[in-house]
Structure formats: C-alpha cells, structure tokens
Amino acid sequence: MLVVTCDVNITQYRSLQAKLCKIMDKEKDSLCFYYLGNKCDTKIEHFGIKDTCEPEGILMV
C-alpha cells in the first residue's frame, strides 16, 4: 500500500483526482481519498476494484 498526503484546495484536488483515476488500472488498482477534519470517517471517496478502503494495521499520516 502506498500512502500519499497532499494539502490542496478543491480545484487542485479535483485535478489530481482526475489525473490519478485516468492513469490507474481499474481492474487491478484502488484509490481512496480521505478528507481530514471533522467527521473525516464519512468523507472517503473510492475508485477501483475494492468495495471499501479499509487500511490494514496502523495507518499514520
């Protein structure tokens, strides 16, 4: 698993999301976007093969 953090505004976020979704292999890869802040556990966007993005073990950002 690869974890990358970015501090971006909404325009930069949508651009990054579109680029990553375009280059990912939808048959093999999963992308999960986590919004940090209040109620962050309900603000997750998922693209790709897995139904959910449940990190295994400890996830430190």
Number of strands: 2
Could you tell me the mean pLDDT?
A: 78
The assigned structural class equals alpha+beta
Q: How many separate domains? A: 1
Low-confidence stretches: none
Number of DSSP helical runs:
1
Main sheet record: 2 strands, antiparallel
Helix percentage: 10-25%
- The Cα radius of gyration reads 12 Å
- How far the N terminus sits from the C terminus, by CA atoms, comes to 13 Å
Approximately what portion of the residues adopt beta-strand conformation? 15-25%
Order of helices and strands: HEE
Main sheet strand line-up:
1-2
Supply the key terms.
2 strands, two-stranded antiparallel ribbon, 1 helix, alpha+beta, 23% helix, globular, 61 residues
Describe the structure.
The protein starts with 9 loop residues before the first helix and ends in a 13-residue tail after the last strand. The radius of gyration is 12 Å and the shape is globular. It has one helix at residues 10-23, and strands spanning 30-34, 44-48. The protein has one domain (1-61). The chain is α+β, with helices and mostly antiparallel strands and 61 residues long. The protein has one helix and two strands; from the N terminus they run αββ. The chain has a two-stranded antiparallel ribbon with strand order 1-2.
